[in-house]
Amino acid sequence: MLCEGVPVSDLLSWLGENGKSLNEEEIAAILKLCMMAIHHLHQNDIIHRDIRASNFIISPEGEMKMIDFGSCALVKDSDGKTHSSIGSPYWMAPEVIACEQLRPYTKSCDVWSLGITAIELAETLPPLFDIHPVRAMFQIARNPPPTLKTRTEWSETFRDFISECLERNAEHRPNILELLLHPFITAIDDTGNATLTLEEHLQQEFVPTSGARVKQSIILIAPLSQADIDESIFHSLLQNTEKRPLNFIETDSNFSRNTSSIQNEELRHPS
């Protein structure tokens, strides 16, 4: 199946090259749609394990879709846990990196990756992107969670959203449904009952939906993929592989590297 559109990561690259960036409302709109897709997977006992901007595409009509399910894990019959160290290093949760030494991990690893993606949307690149991916993994496993480089340029609610996602203790990390009710997200598109508490929302089996403001924000972003970027550039982005994250595969402890790119590497261990 062919999904026409531009990866959000390519849109971020184009914005950066032209001295532009997403504002918080646009970031919140993208994150809400990302979380709705992740929530659908989690409801069906699936962990994506590769949440990042390049795995969400935005169409010229302003629609967003999740792609690349090759790293997914079905955890229905394993008590919601898995133990394979797989994903894209810069976005990997600490417990995924250390899973073979410690214990299996759960769906909350996608929440960590979402927090890194939030920073990526704000700064166009994830933290530690300037160092080798294996070294980055060591730092992720050992160091405190990353934060926005220029904290004062962003609102307290956005910083808090990222902080909630990047809780090192996976057991204390909120789930996707709780994050959908975070003020940073509801501020742009509160389609629920604002008088209900978080607990009441969850008791009523809150079903996330996207309202008019989210749709309007995405539609406003979409022309950047086709109108502001002229047609030839738009189609070249669809074919562009130079700036795509590199797949980095570990098999029997021997690394195989595609030297055409040095930006991102995906570490996989056979289950």
TrEMBL record:
PROSITE patterns: PROTEIN_KINASE_DOM, PROTEIN_KINASE_TYR
Superkingdom: Eukaryota
Any Pfam family matching the protein: Pkinase
GO CC annotations on file: cell projection; cytoskeleton
Domain Protein kinase: residue ranges: 1-185
InterPro entries attached to this UniProt entry: Kinase-like_dom_sf, Myosin-III_kinase_activity, Prot_kinase_dom, Tyr_kinase_AS, Tyr_kinase_cat_dom
Main location: other
Keywords: Actin-binding, Cell projection, Cytoplasm, Cytoskeleton, Repeat
GO biological process: regulation of actin filament length
Cited SUPFAM superfamilies: Protein kinase-like (PK-like) (SSF56112)
Subcellular location per the Swiss-Prot or TrEMBL entry: Cell projection; Cytoplasm, Cytoskeleton
Single GO MF descriptor: microfilament motor activity
The keyword Protein biosynthesis is annotated on this UniProt entry: no
Name of the protein described by the UniProt record: Myosin-IIIa
The organism of origin for this protein: Araneus ventricosus
